[in-house]
Amino acid sequence: MAPDLSIKDRLSEHQAFVGRALVIFAVAVLLVVGLIVRLVQLQVWEHDVYRTRSDENRILVQPLAPQRGLIYDRNGVLLADNRPVFSLELVGERIDDLSAFIEELSTVVTISEEDVTGFYERLKRRRRPFEPIVLKLTLTEDEIAKLAVNRHRFINGMQVNAKLVRFYPYGELFTHAIGSVRRVTEDDLRRLDPVNYSATTFVGKLGVEQFYERSLHGEVGYQRVETDAHGRIRQELERSLPQAGQNLSLHLDSRLQIAASGALGERRGAIVAIDTRSGGILAMVSNPGYDPNLFVTGISNQKYQELVTSRDTPLFNRAINGQYAPGSTFKLIVALAGLTYDVVTWEEQIEDRGWFKLPNHERIYRDWSWTKDNSGGQGIVDLNRAIYRSSNVFFYNLATRLHIDQLTDFASQFGFGRVMSVDVAGASNGLLPDPIWKRGAKGEVWYPGDNVNMGIGQGDLLVTPLQLATVASVIANRGKWVRPQMLLASDLPLSEVDPPPSLPRVQGPSADDWEWLIDSMEDVVHRGNKGYRQNGVAWAYIGRGISYRMAGKSGTAQVVEIKQGEEYDEEELDEYNRKHAWFMAFAPADDPAIAVSVLVENGGGGSSVAGPIAREVLDAHLLPQLAGLDDNRARR
Questions:
Q1: How buried is 215 (Cβ within 10 angstroms: 0-12 exposed, 13-18 middle, 19+ buried)?
Q2: 593-609: per-residue pLDDT in tens?
Q3: Is 54 annotated as catalytic?
Q4: Architecture label for domain 60-250
Q5: Which candidate in 328, 520, 554, 597 is catalytic?
Q6: What CA–CA distance (Å, rounded) separates 117 from 102?
Q7: Cα(165)–Cα(172) distance, rounded to whole angstroms?
Q8: pTM value?
Q9: 325-418+430-462: CATH superfamily
Q10: C-alpha distances out from residue 511 to 271, 387, 518, Å
């Protein structure tokens, strides 16, 4: 039988073609359906998600820094201002090679190593994506012009922004009184509200700026802006304005601050003046100081090292942190304690031979007037004369008759060893030593000689100039307490301060004791022309020609110990080992308006060195008022 020689099976081919076409069609339908489903998912179901992502690429939410509140003195003189500066900022996410970019920028404007180091430090901190980072804080007009001409070279990632930064018109004059701001650090960001400080460059670090930071800072705002592919703002979509910080008025008197600073001159030291009626701090000087504006506009590493390593420690606030032995100013407290505990009377007399010895002890404690050639002392002295002549021997004797607990309990009523101010940030406690403290700090018991040293304000006893001015204020008010404070008024109530509890009057002294004490302090200044042995210790230096009644007390605090049998020779000592000079005073004595303490580091005698400075401060405050009273009387 012959074979089938047909070449094609048309039916079979047709069936295969139809099957394949159906498969392809089904796949195509499935793909189209999948595409449609995906489009529906993107356009309908997930519309909000992808719209948000799209907006994030072209819409930015930028925080707006609030304007920091201003600070004024009691007479409306501006002490802390805000001024506009233009800064150079980079957006790191828009720059491929930051190092090369900054290097090229440095061919147009001056960029220091400190600028670059600070930029990279800020770049590492937590921040929003595409947030500009300051490279150079302050640009000159010439630099702004150069950047504008060369903008096409740096269009991706560079911008020049204007902002307000802190400015202190008086420079170093008020830096230790009102404090200053510093750049926000990583540590600051951990304790501050990250949202409210998201646009803030500076934060208060010292003084009033630190204490009232929350109120001065204000509340952050924001703006939503649309940007192009280069990150340039095309339009503003929404804005919520920041709330400016509150303005503060302080008790400080700029005129008195200038006078006090001038009186202290180039000497190292501090002056604190307090309004005895309100407790307002009228002046607070610490010398030497420094210009706080350097820390705002950018301080060079060399200048910073000069400040840090200076032996005169200009960064140190002596007025509130300097802790010194109070010297003879503490005798007033010893006198009142003796009267309170009936250990002494105003009439009691002793013979001051120039030296004092504890029973069964060999050590000799000398009077300030004692010399090898003249050890005769001050003769017969009572409590009044012991104060105005500052007899060490009388107070050596009195202190040994007081139990140390009696002395420390009484002294604590004046604020020794405690911070009593309302709003002075960072004030030191000083030190009021007692047996418990000594055993814990030194591992030693309390000796009778410790009483002797404390009787004249030496030993371990330490006070700050602010504390001693406070003591002068309490004495001026005859034992009534008014807490020292900086704030006079504000735009709105402040959150930083709750009204502090009122303090009780100093308990113990009678009304007569207070008047006798103040009379003795007046004798320190006004008792004169009756022979050397009768003059007040400060009369020759400040008592002549004074037109009001001042009550005062000098103090000379020993820095290094003078061995037994040796005489203090100032010329032989290094300058920084010489005695500190103190003077505390208030006036007018019968109706006090101002109390002041003056410290001159390594200055020598309290009456001769610190006393005239105290009088200059009191003159500056009182003489214009007294002249006004005289004018009013004349017109009447």
A1: buried
A2: 999 999 999 988 899 99
A3: no
A4: Alpha-Beta Complex (3.90)
A5: 328
A6: 12
A7: 17
A8: 0.84
A9: DD-peptidase/beta-lactamase superfamily (3.40.710.10)
A10: 29, 18, 11
